[in-house]
Backbone:
């Protein structure tokens, strides 16, 4: 059973109820709506389809501005906490929420725990590009990331892209302020060394934001703080583009003619930038399937999130991510990995690489 947080998101519970109804009408996927029963029922259509949607009462709501670590203890009857607890108790197979991302992550981390060999969870997000779609990991689950955690993100992202997105040997890059090996802060330099040691990962080194937006990379790995800013910058740019286009297309006759001639192309671009087409993103590294949606999700986005969650369940998402992570980590331990510590070792490795290139 898929449990949907009916109280999560900027337009809850209306869009959650509508999204669940659409998912059942179009795909035949039944969803249990968790939240304040009276509010949920007020938005349900009065027909036979709506009667098939289960409602689970939750008396408390975690607001967008609530502090995750506090709300976990002060609102134990929240839709988020009760929904995730249902996975723990094996009364649910998956949980979806467009609510407070930090609260969802914190509750999932506390209640379900992380997979073996995984220290912290991470959220992946699709980024539309001229060449298709790139993926960003982490987008906000773990704000500050240690080098080892970035290595774990790279492993999980590699598995996610290859097994669930269908990308053969996905290219993986570490988001930085330049592509040169000497760029980045110390933690990124250390992460570079750790990810480089993972022979199964197609690691191409440091990348810049433009490499993601131009589709030169399949997966961009970063900490949750940087990833979230990057993602919100892209969303803001897309909104600005739409606003500027809307403002200029009716300025004069020339603009109107150009707008008419380019309408199909522009609509295609807008459709690719439409966040509702992408549904939700899985919280990687958690011992349970938890899918996070954008706070501004509409009913179409919720419907798509339910569909993709159902697809993940049919492909044993958690089992595959966990099993492959253990396998890759085990194989890495079998190999002797040089333990380089400090900046001296870092510059020594750079010097050696330079000498190899010259020879």
Residues:
């Amino acid at each position: 059973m898929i449990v949907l947080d009916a109280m999560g998101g900027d337009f809850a519970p209306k869009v959650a109820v509508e999204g669940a109804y659409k998912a059942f009408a179009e795909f035949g996927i039944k969803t249990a709506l968790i939240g304040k029963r009276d509010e949920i029922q007020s938005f349900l259509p009065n027909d036979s389809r709506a009667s098939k949607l289960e409602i689970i009462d939750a008396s408390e709501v975690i607001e967008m501005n609530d502090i995750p670590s506090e709300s976990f203890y002060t609102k134990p009857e929240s839709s988020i906490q009760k929904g995730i607890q249902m996975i723990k108790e094996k009364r649910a197979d998956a949980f979806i929420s467009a609510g407070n991302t930090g609260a969802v992550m914190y509750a999932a981390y506390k209640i379900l725990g992380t997979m073996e060999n995984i220290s912290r969870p991470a959220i992946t997000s699709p980024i539309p590009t001229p060449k298709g779609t790139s993926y960003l990991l982490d987008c906000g689950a773990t704000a500050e990331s240690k080098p080892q955690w970035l290595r774990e993100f790279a492993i999980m992202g590699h598995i996610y892209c290859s097994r669930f997105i269908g990308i053969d040997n996905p290219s993986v890059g570490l988001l930085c302020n330049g592509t040169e090996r000497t760029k980045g802060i110390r933690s990124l330099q250390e992460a570079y060394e750790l990810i480089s040691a993972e022979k199964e990962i197609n690691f191409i080194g440091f990348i810049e934001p433009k490499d993601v937006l131009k589709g030169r990379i399949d997966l961009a790995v970063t900490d949750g703080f940087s990833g979230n800013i990057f993602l919100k910058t892209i969303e803001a740019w897309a909104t600005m583009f739409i606003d500027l286009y809307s403002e200029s297309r009716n300025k004069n006759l020339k603009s109107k003619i150009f707008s008419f001639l380019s309408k199909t192309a522009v609509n295609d671009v807008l459709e690719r930038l439409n966040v509702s087409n992408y549904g939700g993103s899985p919280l990687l590294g958690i011992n349970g399937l938890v899918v996070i949606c954008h706070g501004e999700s509409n009913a179409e986005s919720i419907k798509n999130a339910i569909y993709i969650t159902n697809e993940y369940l049919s492909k044993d998402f958690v089992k595959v991510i966990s099993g492959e992570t253990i396998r890759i980590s085990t194989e890495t331990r079998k190999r002797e990995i040089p333990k380089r510590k400090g900046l001296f070792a870092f510059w020594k490795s750079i010097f050696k690489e330079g000498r190899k290139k010259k020879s």
In short: Residues 224-248 form the longest helix (25 residues). The first strand starts at residue 2 and ends at 5. DSSP finds 15 helices and eleven strands in the chain.
